[in-house]
Amino acid sequence: MALNIIDLIKGQLGPALVSQAASQLGESESGISKAISGLLPAVVGGMANNADKPEVLDAITGAASSGMLGNLLGGATGNSLISSVLSSIFGDKIGALVNSISTFSGVSNSSSSSLLSMVTGAALGSIGKYAADNNIGASGITSLLHDQKGVVSSLLPAGLSLASLGLGNAFGDHDPHKVKVTSYDEPKVEVNRGGETHVTSTPNNNNEGGSIWKWLLPLLLLALAAWFLWKQCNKPADQTVVTSDSTAVVSDTANTMMNNDSAMVTGSKEMTDIDLNGKPLKGYANGLEASMIIFLKSDGYKNAADDAALRDTWYNFDNVNFKMGSSSELEAGSEGQVQNLAEILKAYPEAKINIGGYTDNTGDAAVNKALSQKRADYIKAELGKMGVGAQVVDAKGYGSEFATVPATASDAERAVDRKMAVRFTK
Predict the structure, then answer these.
(1) Quick one: average pLDDT of 287-301?
(2) Nearest to 39 by CA among 160, 214, 138
């Protein structure tokens, strides 16, 4: 397959948008992420199965010039292109889809409906932009969507199937989540590269042999399910890098500076190369650098009408820590991310930012605010030394003003409130 559309769209649904959606919809970030994981393959599968319909193709080509990707949260609900596509690909199944995703993820039905519009907008905008950038016409878009048919159903997360989404066999005759059991001679259990489990057998009319497999087969499936759950529970925690002025949320179970005035949560993931227009920057796959670059490449900054469209999205530094009690000395290794931010600003000289400093709920509020202000000023000054001072509009210390974790919580729990962050501004 020349292009994996799912991966293309995921670039628009990263941690920044998840955090913003959680704040706006009043849901947990884990619930939002879980809902998106179910909606994305369902939406792409629906579009792939209806790739010949004019309303689907018109919506994709129209999305390329609509600026849809620049306002996925605010502009998705009620958008006529999105409504038309959803009606075309799901028909009267929209309610069943929304309800199933709500039950699966734990978010409300209204939030599930909003996220369905957001994911559909991201799909239309991403495919439309890709088609426009590569001069792909209607027939090419249809072919591109048809290529996705064989994989979308296998990308549904554990706990969801096409039937549970109210879509039945909507994406073709083969549903890898279904296992048909009759009577068995010698069952064969296979796990393919995608992690799907298939059970095949030779039917046998021998009642004694069939009775053995009636209890043995469930045990095999149970063992496989237990293995899968064990693997899921031992995955490293995801790094979420965006907070809001009003909520200051971070969901990162990572290594933390275990002191009250630590400035940031340090991620537990390995560093990787983040592409900055051909120049590699060392950072986390879902960290500050990656999220900011994705936003800039999607023209989100260029399409933002004013500062009001940007002020609620903050990107947390995930590798910047001040020494205990200090507002002018960084821990070893922290300077690299400040340098990365400077490189991003140099690559996008039209972009402007604000710096924010935050503390947790413990200690004297006035002292905390003063410390966070000094740290914000320090980051601003460092960026000035690196030649991008004109792009740093403001630096402000918020102290514990937006802390969300009670002072009685453990130090590790309160660590999410101790951070430095940056947001775009006009």
Answers:
(1) 93
(2) 160
